[in-house]
């Protein structure tokens, strides 16, 4: 079996992969020039206020400049931003929605994963089969509980060592990733394995930032999902596990009480849980 002793993807490796993936999708927004000017002005003012409040010195300013350069060269902007900033943007989006709670996307989503039927198993290695199986079932509905035909779940998660495929070179391309096509009533049943908590790489500038604040680098074990259906708003979210380590101190501030699963372990050693999703109208 492959173990954490024998594989240790680096901050530079996962950061560079995340940056390259993000750049491939060239970001755009229809923000008006007036709104952009106001946001830019206020963002700078907030930073100036911190500098004045703390009496930041020239040596400190230069260390800050060096750190920003290091984050870019290490490819860690996707990691840093999604861990420390994205949750606030998600909060803005969440305030206009009624359905299943969303959470941050994070840096490790990859589009166009293999499509799988409503009852399926995620692609996994033979090593992964030795881990605790998880069967995750449920239904995708509208806000009134009516099942939605044509619904899909894009699911991606870390393996039992905390690594994501395409961001750790030892894993097959689509390991623990898939697009599940729910049945005509929006039902699905997915077999996968329990993911491990995720540790932000500590050997890069984001790790240095965490250490500087005496913080820990951990996210609780989680599943990532984008749930969608024709005519509905898609929801990007994450699901966590009751009692899981770091649930109450996620470094990315992305847990919500409504997003915690409580799987039951069967006599066969399989963890089973159901979770239903309600989608807002588009
Ligand atoms: C992750 O797995 C993740 O979900 C986020 C948000 C940041 C870093 C790693
Ligand atoms: Fe994640």
Question: What does this protein look like?
Answer:
The protein is an alpha/beta fold and 282 residues long. The protein has a domain of 187 residues: Protocatechuate 3,4-Dioxygenase, subunit A (Sandwich), CATH 2.60.130.10. Helices cover 27% and strands 21% of the residues. It has 6 helices and 14 strands. The strands form 3 sheets. Strands 1-5-4-9-10-11 form a 6-stranded mixed sheet, with no helix packed on it. A hairpin with a 5-residue loop joins strand 12 and strand 13. The longest helix has 22 residues. It starts with 10 loop residues before the first helix and ends with a strand. The N terminus is likely disordered. Bound molecules: 3-methylcatechol (MBD) and fe (iii) ion (FE). The site of fe (iii) ion has 5 residues, from strand 9.
Question: Which terms would index this structure?
Answer:
282 residues; alpha/beta; Protocatechuate 3,4-Dioxygenase, subunit A; six-stranded mixed beta sheet; 6 helices; 21% strand; binds 3-methylcatechol; binds fe (iii) ion
Question: What's the helix and strand layout?
Answer:
Blueprint: H1 11-23, H2 33-54, H3 58-73, H4 77-84, H5 86-94, E1 115-116, E2 119-121, E3 133-141, E4 152-157, E5 177-181, E6 187-193, E7 198-199, H6 205-212, E8 218-219, E9 222-228, E10 235-241, E11 260-261, E12 264-265, E13 271-274, E14 277-278
Bound molecules: 3-methylcatechol and fe (iii) ion.
């Amino acid at each position: 079996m492959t173990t954490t002793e024998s594989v240790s993807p680096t901050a530079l490796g996962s950061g560079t992969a995340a940056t390259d993936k993000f750049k491939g999708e060239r970001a755009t927004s229809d923000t008006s020039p007036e709104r952009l000017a106001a946001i830019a002005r206020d963002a700078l003012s907030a930073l100036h206020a911190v500098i004045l409040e703390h009496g930041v010195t020239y040596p400190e300013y230069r260390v800050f400049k060096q750190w920003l350069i290091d984050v870019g060269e290490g490819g860690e902007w996707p990691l840093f931003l999604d861990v420390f900033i994205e949750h606030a943007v998600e909060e803005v989006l969440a305030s206009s929605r009624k359905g299943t709670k969303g959470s941050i996307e994070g840096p490790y989503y990859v589009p166009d994963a293999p499509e799988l039927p409503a009852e399926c198993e995620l692609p996994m290695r033979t090593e992964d089969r030795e881990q605790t199986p998880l069967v995750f079932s449920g239904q995708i509905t509208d806000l009134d509980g009516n099942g939605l035909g044509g619904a899909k779940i894009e699911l991606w998660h870390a393996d039992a060592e905390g690594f994501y495929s395409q961001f750790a070179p030892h894993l097959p391309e689509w390991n623990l990733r898939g697009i599940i096509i729910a049945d005509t009533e929006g039902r699905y049943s997915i077999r996968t394995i329990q993911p491990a908590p995720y540790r932000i790489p500590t050997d890069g500038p984001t790790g240095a930032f965490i250490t500087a604040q005496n913080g820990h680098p951990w996210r609780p074990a989680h599943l990532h999902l984008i749930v969608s259906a024709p005519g509905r708003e898609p929801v990007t979210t994450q699901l966590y596990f009751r009692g899981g380590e770091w649930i109450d101190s996620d470094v990315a501030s992305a847990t919500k009480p409504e997003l915690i699963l409580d799987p039951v372990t069967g006599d066969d050693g399989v963890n089973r849980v159901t979770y239903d999703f309600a989608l807002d109208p588009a």
